[in-house]
Design goal:
Distance between the termini of chain B: 39 Å
Largest interface: A-B, 22 and 24 residues
Number of helices of chain B: 4
Order of helices and strands of chain B: HHHEEHEE
Strand content of chain A: 15-25%
CATH class of chain B: Alpha Beta
Number of helices of chain A: 4
Structural class of chain B: alpha+beta
Number of strands of chain A: 5
Oligomer: heterodimer
Strand content of chain B: 15-25%
Structural class of chain A: alpha+beta
Strand order of the largest sheet of chain A: 2-1-5-4-3
CATH class of chain A: Alpha Beta
Helix content of chain B: 40-55%
Largest sheet of chain A: 5 strands, antiparallel
CATH superfamily of chain A: Dynein light chain 2a, cytoplasmic
Number of domains of chain B: 1
CATH topology of chain A: Beta-Lactamase
CATH architecture of chain B: 2-Layer Sandwich
Chain lengths: 168, 152
Protein backbone atom coordinates (compact mmCIF):
# COMPACT_ATOMS: atom_id res chain seq x y z
CA UNK A 1 0.00 0.00 0.00
CA UNK A 2 1.59 3.32 -0.95
CA UNK A 3 2.11 6.16 1.48
CA UNK A 4 -0.67 8.31 -0.01
CA UNK A 5 -3.35 5.63 0.47
CA UNK A 6 -2.10 4.75 3.94
CA UNK A 7 -2.30 8.38 5.01
CA UNK A 8 -5.82 8.74 3.58
CA UNK A 9 -7.03 5.60 5.40
CA UNK A 10 -5.48 6.74 8.66
CA UNK A 11 -7.17 10.13 8.32
CA UNK A 12 -10.57 8.53 7.69
CA UNK A 13 -10.13 6.23 10.69
CA UNK A 14 -9.22 9.14 12.95
CA UNK A 15 -12.19 11.17 11.70
CA UNK A 16 -14.51 8.28 12.60
CA UNK A 17 -13.35 8.17 16.22
CA UNK A 18 -13.00 11.89 16.83
CA UNK A 19 -15.69 14.19 18.25
CA UNK A 20 -16.83 16.89 15.80
CA UNK A 21 -16.01 20.49 16.86
CA UNK A 22 -18.77 22.80 18.19
CA UNK A 23 -20.52 24.62 15.33
CA UNK A 24 -20.27 28.07 16.99
CA UNK A 25 -16.49 28.01 16.92
CA UNK A 26 -15.31 30.30 14.10
CA UNK A 27 -11.95 28.63 13.73
CA UNK A 28 -11.29 25.03 12.75
CA UNK A 29 -9.36 22.97 13.71
CA UNK A 30 -9.41 24.05 17.35
CA UNK A 31 -7.07 23.07 20.11
CA UNK A 32 -8.42 23.81 23.60
CA UNK A 33 -6.12 25.96 25.73
CA UNK A 34 -7.57 24.16 28.77
CA UNK A 35 -8.39 20.71 27.43
CA UNK A 36 -11.93 19.48 28.17
CA UNK A 37 -12.05 15.75 28.99
CA UNK A 38 -13.75 14.60 25.74
CA UNK A 39 -11.57 16.55 23.30
CA UNK A 40 -8.35 14.44 23.27
CA UNK A 41 -9.22 12.57 20.03
CA UNK A 42 -9.41 15.92 18.17
CA UNK A 43 -6.13 17.11 19.70
CA UNK A 44 -4.49 13.79 18.86
CA UNK A 45 -5.79 13.97 15.29
CA UNK A 46 -4.43 17.49 14.83
CA UNK A 47 -1.08 16.62 16.39
CA UNK A 48 -0.76 13.55 14.21
CA UNK A 49 -1.56 15.63 11.11
CA UNK A 50 1.11 18.20 12.00
CA UNK A 51 3.60 15.43 12.58
CA UNK A 52 2.62 13.76 9.31
CA UNK A 53 3.06 17.05 7.46
CA UNK A 54 6.52 17.49 8.89
CA UNK A 55 7.47 13.92 7.94
CA UNK A 56 6.19 14.30 4.39
CA UNK A 57 8.15 17.53 3.97
CA UNK A 58 11.31 16.09 5.50
CA UNK A 59 11.13 13.02 3.25
CA UNK A 60 10.65 15.24 0.23
CA UNK A 61 13.70 17.35 0.98
CA UNK A 62 15.84 14.32 1.82
CA UNK A 63 14.64 12.25 -1.10
CA UNK A 64 14.60 14.79 -3.92
CA UNK A 65 17.92 15.86 -5.32
CA UNK A 66 18.69 19.58 -5.50
CA UNK A 67 15.75 20.53 -3.25
CA UNK A 68 17.05 22.69 -0.42
CA UNK A 69 13.94 23.51 1.53
CA UNK A 70 10.18 23.43 1.67
CA UNK A 71 7.48 25.26 3.58
CA UNK A 72 3.75 24.68 3.86
CA UNK A 73 1.97 27.89 4.71
CA UNK A 74 -1.61 28.95 5.41
CA UNK A 75 -3.17 31.41 2.94
CA UNK A 76 -2.89 34.17 5.53
CA UNK A 77 0.81 33.66 5.99
CA UNK A 78 1.24 31.36 8.98
CA UNK A 79 3.69 28.49 8.80
CA UNK A 80 2.08 25.05 9.02
CA UNK A 81 5.25 23.01 8.66
CA UNK A 82 8.64 23.60 7.13
CA UNK A 83 12.07 22.21 6.46
CA UNK A 84 14.24 25.21 5.70
CA UNK A 85 17.94 26.00 5.71
CA UNK A 86 19.03 27.16 9.15
CA UNK A 87 19.49 30.84 8.34
CA UNK A 88 15.91 31.29 7.07
CA UNK A 89 13.25 32.64 9.41
CA UNK A 90 10.14 30.45 9.21
CA UNK A 91 7.64 33.19 10.03
CA UNK A 92 9.08 35.69 7.58
CA UNK A 93 9.28 33.03 4.87
CA UNK A 94 5.64 32.09 5.50
CA UNK A 95 4.39 35.68 5.27
CA UNK A 96 6.42 36.32 2.12
CA UNK A 97 5.21 33.14 0.44
CA UNK A 98 1.52 33.81 1.08
CA UNK A 99 1.93 37.44 -0.02
CA UNK A 100 3.69 36.44 -3.21
CA UNK A 101 1.10 33.92 -4.23
CA UNK A 102 -1.66 36.42 -3.48
CA UNK A 103 0.15 39.08 -5.50
CA UNK A 104 0.73 36.62 -8.33
CA UNK A 105 -2.97 35.79 -8.41
CA UNK A 106 -3.79 39.48 -8.55
CA UNK A 107 -1.35 40.00 -11.40
CA UNK A 108 -2.95 37.08 -13.19
CA UNK A 109 -6.37 38.70 -12.84
CA UNK A 110 -5.37 42.32 -13.56
CA UNK A 111 -3.17 41.43 -16.51
CA UNK A 112 -5.58 38.82 -17.89
CA UNK A 113 -3.21 35.87 -17.48
CA UNK A 114 -5.90 33.56 -16.11
CA UNK A 115 -5.58 31.33 -13.06
CA UNK A 116 -2.06 30.92 -11.76
CA UNK A 117 -0.36 27.50 -11.91
CA UNK A 118 2.81 28.45 -10.06
CA UNK A 119 5.10 31.36 -9.30
CA UNK A 120 8.80 30.87 -9.91
CA UNK A 121 11.52 33.13 -8.58
CA UNK A 122 14.69 32.33 -10.48
CA UNK A 123 17.96 33.61 -9.03
CA UNK A 124 21.59 32.94 -9.82
CA UNK A 125 21.78 30.47 -6.93
CA UNK A 126 18.54 28.63 -7.48
CA UNK A 127 14.77 28.65 -7.58
CA UNK A 128 11.87 29.41 -5.30
CA UNK A 129 8.62 27.86 -6.54
CA UNK A 130 5.23 28.72 -5.05
CA UNK A 131 2.09 26.71 -5.71
CA UNK A 132 -1.31 26.46 -4.12
CA UNK A 133 -1.79 23.28 -2.11
CA UNK A 134 -5.55 22.90 -2.13
CA UNK A 135 -7.51 25.93 -0.96
CA UNK A 136 -6.08 25.75 2.55
CA UNK A 137 -2.37 26.04 1.99
CA UNK A 138 0.48 27.39 -0.09
CA UNK A 139 3.64 25.41 -0.78
CA UNK A 140 7.08 26.95 -1.23
CA UNK A 141 9.89 24.79 -2.59
CA UNK A 142 13.51 25.95 -2.73
CA UNK A 143 15.86 24.27 -5.19
CA UNK A 144 19.43 24.78 -6.31
CA UNK A 145 20.34 26.07 -9.75
CA UNK A 146 21.44 22.55 -10.74
CA UNK A 147 17.90 21.22 -10.64
CA UNK A 148 16.09 20.16 -13.80
CA UNK A 149 12.98 22.33 -13.87
CA UNK A 150 10.75 19.75 -15.49
CA UNK A 151 11.55 17.13 -12.87
CA UNK A 152 11.20 19.68 -10.09
CA UNK A 153 7.72 20.73 -11.23
CA UNK A 154 6.68 17.08 -11.52
CA UNK A 155 7.93 16.30 -8.00
CA UNK A 156 6.11 19.36 -6.69
CA UNK A 157 2.90 18.20 -8.33
CA UNK A 158 3.30 14.82 -6.63
CA UNK A 159 3.90 16.23 -3.20
CA UNK A 160 0.97 18.63 -3.53
CA UNK A 161 -1.22 15.58 -4.21
CA UNK A 162 0.10 14.01 -0.96
CA UNK A 163 -0.21 17.16 1.15
CA UNK A 164 -3.58 18.52 0.03
CA UNK A 165 -5.64 15.78 1.77
CA UNK A 166 -3.67 16.31 4.99
CA UNK A 167 -4.44 20.02 5.17
CA UNK A 168 -8.01 20.02 3.87
CA UNK B 1 15.99 61.26 14.84
CA UNK B 2 13.57 63.01 17.20
CA UNK B 3 10.89 65.54 16.27
CA UNK B 4 11.27 68.40 18.73
CA UNK B 5 8.34 70.34 17.28
CA UNK B 6 5.97 67.65 15.96
CA UNK B 7 6.63 65.07 18.68
CA UNK B 8 6.00 61.31 18.42
CA UNK B 9 2.44 61.31 17.14
CA UNK B 10 0.78 62.16 13.86
CA UNK B 11 -2.74 61.98 12.51
CA UNK B 12 -3.91 58.58 11.34
CA UNK B 13 -5.00 60.17 8.05
CA UNK B 14 -1.63 59.75 6.35
CA UNK B 15 -1.01 56.21 7.51
CA UNK B 16 -4.47 55.10 6.51
CA UNK B 17 -3.84 56.62 3.10
CA UNK B 18 -0.66 54.52 2.93
CA UNK B 19 -2.67 51.38 3.73
CA UNK B 20 -5.22 52.19 1.01
CA UNK B 21 -2.38 52.87 -1.42
CA UNK B 22 -0.76 49.51 -0.65
CA UNK B 23 -4.10 47.80 -1.18
CA UNK B 24 -4.44 49.45 -4.57
CA UNK B 25 -0.95 48.42 -5.61
CA UNK B 26 -0.65 44.98 -4.04
CA UNK B 27 -4.21 43.92 -3.39
CA UNK B 28 -6.07 43.70 -0.12
CA UNK B 29 -4.93 40.19 0.72
CA UNK B 30 -1.20 40.73 0.25
CA UNK B 31 -1.43 44.01 2.17
CA UNK B 32 -3.32 42.33 5.00
CA UNK B 33 -0.74 39.54 5.19
CA UNK B 34 2.09 42.05 5.39
CA UNK B 35 0.36 44.23 7.99
CA UNK B 36 -0.61 41.29 10.19
CA UNK B 37 2.94 39.99 9.98
CA UNK B 38 4.30 43.43 10.87
CA UNK B 39 1.84 43.67 13.76
CA UNK B 40 2.86 40.25 15.05
CA UNK B 41 6.52 41.22 15.04
CA UNK B 42 5.67 44.44 16.89
CA UNK B 43 3.52 42.53 19.40
CA UNK B 44 6.30 40.08 20.15
CA UNK B 45 8.74 42.92 20.66
CA UNK B 46 6.23 44.54 23.01
CA UNK B 47 5.74 41.35 25.03
CA UNK B 48 9.51 41.21 25.59
CA UNK B 49 9.64 44.89 26.54
CA UNK B 50 6.80 44.43 29.04
CA UNK B 51 8.37 41.28 30.46
CA UNK B 52 5.28 39.26 29.62
CA UNK B 53 7.03 36.32 27.96
CA UNK B 54 5.75 33.10 29.53
CA UNK B 55 4.29 35.05 32.43
CA UNK B 56 2.00 33.42 34.98
CA UNK B 57 0.14 36.71 35.46
CA UNK B 58 -3.62 36.73 35.03
CA UNK B 59 -5.26 37.82 31.81
CA UNK B 60 -6.46 40.90 33.66
CA UNK B 61 -2.89 41.94 34.41
CA UNK B 62 -1.86 41.19 30.82
CA UNK B 63 -4.72 43.37 29.56
CA UNK B 64 -3.66 46.16 31.88
CA UNK B 65 -0.05 46.05 30.72
CA UNK B 66 -0.89 45.85 27.03
CA UNK B 67 -3.50 48.57 27.46
CA UNK B 68 -0.98 50.80 29.08
CA UNK B 69 1.56 50.29 26.30
CA UNK B 70 -0.85 50.58 23.39
CA UNK B 71 -3.46 52.99 24.78
CA UNK B 72 -3.82 56.58 25.91
CA UNK B 73 -0.54 56.67 27.80
CA UNK B 74 1.36 54.61 25.25
CA UNK B 75 1.55 54.42 21.50
CA UNK B 76 -2.20 55.05 21.03
CA UNK B 77 -2.72 52.12 18.70
CA UNK B 78 -5.85 50.96 20.51
CA UNK B 79 -7.44 50.61 23.93
CA UNK B 80 -7.33 47.10 25.42
CA UNK B 81 -10.44 46.89 27.55
CA UNK B 82 -10.33 43.27 28.65
CA UNK B 83 -8.94 39.83 27.87
CA UNK B 84 -11.10 36.85 28.76
CA UNK B 85 -10.90 33.13 28.28
CA UNK B 86 -14.07 31.55 26.90
CA UNK B 87 -13.63 27.81 26.79
CA UNK B 88 -10.85 27.06 24.35
CA UNK B 89 -10.67 30.61 23.08
CA UNK B 90 -9.02 33.77 24.38
CA UNK B 91 -10.88 36.93 23.42
CA UNK B 92 -9.36 40.38 23.49
CA UNK B 93 -11.79 43.29 23.61
CA UNK B 94 -10.31 46.43 22.10
CA UNK B 95 -11.72 49.82 21.22
CA UNK B 96 -10.68 52.90 19.27
CA UNK B 97 -8.43 50.73 17.15
CA UNK B 98 -6.23 52.41 14.60
CA UNK B 99 -7.54 50.09 11.88
CA UNK B 100 -11.22 50.99 12.42
CA UNK B 101 -10.68 54.71 12.98
CA UNK B 102 -12.13 56.95 10.29
CA UNK B 103 -14.09 54.13 8.67
CA UNK B 104 -17.82 54.59 8.01
CA UNK B 105 -20.38 52.40 9.73
CA UNK B 106 -20.98 49.29 7.67
CA UNK B 107 -17.43 49.26 6.29
CA UNK B 108 -16.05 45.78 5.61
CA UNK B 109 -12.58 46.71 6.84
CA UNK B 110 -11.01 44.28 9.29
CA UNK B 111 -8.17 44.96 11.68
CA UNK B 112 -4.80 43.85 10.42
CA UNK B 113 -1.87 45.57 12.09
CA UNK B 114 -3.77 45.96 15.40
CA UNK B 115 -4.85 42.31 15.31
CA UNK B 116 -1.28 41.32 14.57
CA UNK B 117 0.14 43.36 17.45
CA UNK B 118 -2.21 41.79 19.98
CA UNK B 119 -1.65 38.37 18.39
CA UNK B 120 2.14 38.53 18.59
CA UNK B 121 2.06 39.80 22.16
CA UNK B 122 -0.34 37.06 23.25
CA UNK B 123 1.66 34.30 21.57
CA UNK B 124 4.76 35.11 23.57
CA UNK B 125 2.75 35.82 26.72
CA UNK B 126 0.90 32.50 26.61
CA UNK B 127 3.79 30.56 25.07
CA UNK B 128 1.53 29.01 22.42
CA UNK B 129 1.15 29.30 18.65
CA UNK B 130 -2.17 30.99 18.06
CA UNK B 131 -4.62 31.48 15.22
CA UNK B 132 -6.23 34.89 15.47
CA UNK B 133 -9.37 36.32 13.88
CA UNK B 134 -11.20 39.60 14.05
CA UNK B 135 -14.63 38.31 15.06
CA UNK B 136 -16.56 41.43 16.05
CA UNK B 137 -16.24 44.97 14.73
CA UNK B 138 -17.40 48.39 15.90
CA UNK B 139 -18.03 49.10 12.22
CA UNK B 140 -20.60 46.34 11.98
CA UNK B 141 -22.68 46.77 15.10
CA UNK B 142 -20.28 45.60 17.80
CA UNK B 143 -19.35 47.48 20.95
CA UNK B 144 -15.71 46.48 20.59
CA UNK B 145 -13.25 45.22 18.04
CA UNK B 146 -12.91 41.68 19.36
CA UNK B 147 -10.00 39.43 18.46
CA UNK B 148 -10.42 35.72 19.11
CA UNK B 149 -7.44 33.42 19.49
CA UNK B 150 -7.26 29.66 19.60
CA UNK B 151 -4.25 27.42 19.74
CA UNK B 152 -2.89 26.77 16.26
Amino acid sequence: MDLGNLLKRLKVALEQVSTPPEPSNPISPVLPLEEPPNQSPIREKIMINASMLQDVLQNFVSGTSDVQGIALVSPDGLALASVLPGEMDEERTAAMSASMLSLGERIGRELARGSIDRIVVEGEKGYGVLVGCGIDAVLLVLASSAVKQGILFLEIKRIVAKLAPLVS
Amino acid sequence: MTRPILGDFSSIACFKAAVVGMEDALGEKATAIALISAGRARGKHLARELDLVGTSASLEVVAQKLGSALGKDGTRLCMVDKIVQEGDMVKVYTSETFCSAGEPQGSERKCTYTLGAIWGALELTLGKRLQGKHVESVLRGGTHDVFAFTEF
